Amino acid sequence: MISGKFAITIHILTLLTKFPDEYLSSEFIAGSINLHPVLVRKEIANLKKNSIVESKEGKNGGTKLLKSAAKISLDTIFRMTFDTVSFGFSKNEPNPNCPVGKQINKNLENLYGKINEKISLQLSSISLEDFSNQF
Amino acid sequence: MISGKFAITIHILTLLTKFPDEYLSSEFIAGSINLHPVLVRKEIANLKKNSIVESKEGKNGGTKLLKSAAKISLDTIFRMTFDTVSFGFSKNEPNPNCPVGKQINKNLENLYGKINEKISLQLSSISLEDFSNQF
DNA sequence: AAAACTGTAACATTTTTTATTACTTAATAA
DNA sequence: TTATTAAGTAATAAAAAATGTTACAGTTTT
Question: Which InterPro entries match (chains A, B) (predicted)?
Answer without folding.
Answer: Tscrpt_reg_Rrf2, WH-like_DNA-bd_sf, WH_DNA-bd_sf
